[in-house]
Amino acid sequence: MAQAFGDAGEQIGQHLRRTRKERRLTLTAVGQMTGVSPSALSKIENGLVSPSFDIIKRICDGLDLPIEDLVAPGVPQEQPQVLGRKTTTRGGDGARFTSGQYDYRAHATELSRKGMVPLEMLVRARSVEEFDHWSRHNGEEFVYVLSGAIEVHTEFYAPFRLEAGESGYFDSSMAHLYISVSPEDARVLSVSYDPEQGKRQLSAFMNASARPIAAKERAPARRKTGAA
Predict the structure, then answer these.
(1) Is the pTM of this model over 0.85?
(2) Can you tell me the distance from the alpha carbon of 200 to that of 70, in angstroms, rounded to the nearest whole number?
(3) Are the beta carbons of 170 and 154 closer than 8 angstroms?
């Protein structure tokens, strides 16, 4: 699972470039709108870096672009104003991303501009030093450990451990990150809620450099039997 990513990270950059050119915007203009430097935007567009989801959040917010347009382009999406919206994510479905610290499977990507972002995560990081920045985004976050164990680090509280079947809920405007503290990589369900989503575009709530995984590159996860 961790090695089957190929060049799929170019997808976000290609879509960003296409969107920028369709709107006849320069890199400088997009930088002013998003708070992301023109040089960083250029590297993203050219597939030289995998943007963190904090960066993707800023880009989507600044361009008023649904996050699904970047992470799952071409997927038919429900209109956000329709009452009674519904979707299901079957086994093997969902947009996938990786960063080195985390692997992600985003659920409900057919729904655009939704207030909650449900993510299935494989936590690979084993130390805080593996992160080049901490995640921070508007709203609240719920994390439930599916298997293994994690240690949750936040800006204002001492780190705390969560075992399988345990959960945490916190203000996600605090800087935060997860590390695995079990022999195997931990699997968690993370659900983020942004109360501002009803007023503006959907944003992403994932930390660390990430890139999408093309369907043809996906490999089934293998159960680890020894220490990481």
Answers:
(1) no
(2) 17
(3) yes
- The pLDDT tens digits for 9-44 are 567 888 899 999 999 999 999 999 998 899 989 988
Q: What is the 3-state secondary structure (H, E, C) of 162-194?
A: EECCCEEEEECCCCEEEEECCCCCEEEEEEEEC
202: nearest Cα among 120, 136, 109, 130: 109
DSSP string covering the chain, please?
A: --STTTTTTHHHHHHHHHHHHHTT--HHHHHHHHS--HHHHHHHHTTSS--BHHHHHHHHHHHT--HHHHHSTT---B-TT-TT------TT-SEEEE-SSEEEEE--TTB-S-SEEEEEEEE---SGGG-SS-B--SSEEEEEEEESEEEEEESSS--EEEETT-EEEEETTS-EEEEE-SSSPEEEEEEEE-GGGGTS-------SB-EE--GGG--------S--
Residue whose pair of structure tokens reads 């989507």 in the numeric block: 60
pLDDT in tens, 85-135: 888 999 988 888 777 788 888 898 888 778 888 889 999 999 999 988 788
Determine how β-strand 149-154 pairs with β-strand 176-180.
antiparallel
